[in-house]
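Table 4 source record.
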Amino acid sequence: MEFERQAISAGIAAARPIDPVAPAYGWAGRVAGHGAYRVYEWVDNRPLTAPDDIAGWLGRTPWTESRVSPLILAGGVRCSSVFILALDRQ
């Protein structure tokens, strides 16, 4: 949850969590008989279409995420988890 807080504070577009009235931990609150839940602001969205230009988002988001919490790989290489996912799919 701390990474999520830092990412949102850094400007990554994400649904913002709503603080529970009585937190169980972090942004989670307990619902009697149902466990712990987190609640977020509603985010309107739509499917991407061919003319959508998301190049800026595709560059900005992984870069910002890597500044929030860079990962250190073997050999001391720093990268973001988004980059690791991309490598894993090749």
